[in-house]
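[agent] plan:
  1. take the single chain provided in the ticket
  2. run structure prediction with default settings
  3. attach structure tokens to the ticket
  4. add a short note for the reviewer (M.T.)
[agent] executing step 1
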Amino acid sequence: VLKAGAAFVHIDASLPADRIAGIIRKTGAPFILYDGKTDPDKLNEVARREGKAIVALNDLNKAQDQPQLPFTRKVQLPSSLAYIQVTSGTTGEPKCIMIEHCNLVAFMEADEPEFLGSWTTSKLQLSNRTFDIAMADVFGTLGRGGRLVLGPDAEILSSLAEWLEMTSVTDLNTSPLVADLLKNNVPAHLSVLMVG
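[agent] step 2 finished; step 3 output follows
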């Protein structure tokens, strides 16, 4: 999305349709890009109701040579929008936090190797993609040339130590509850465990 010159907002597809529609309206998203699997009926209904195009990733890959994509490529300035973080709305109405390219680059250039990693980092990304820590995992790790490990959360959590060992994960940012799963079995490659 960023390479195409667009901005994005992660939306949890498990949210109610009205909440998803509200986020799309509030952010002004021109179309919905999704994995093609997660609740397509609900997302198609939201897209229809909101008058937005909906594109599955697989369909986008097939159509990349066609001129009629639902967006146009633009040159991005440092002040251009990179992504929008939507708060949970626990204090009332969810708020949209707009992250510009210059802020994203400043974050990626921060000298925080224990938090962001390095080119030797292999980080397991477990956080919900709508949380700010997930963006730190993604951009911090990949921005330094590291490797990001993704997978089905339920399967990973049911055998966390084995997953970490099998994928040679070196860094994990997680909650205390998940960290407790490693209490008696810390994998050999895991060198940074941040709990918070």
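[agent] step 4 note for reviewer: The chain is about 35% helix and 20% strand.
[agent] ticket updated
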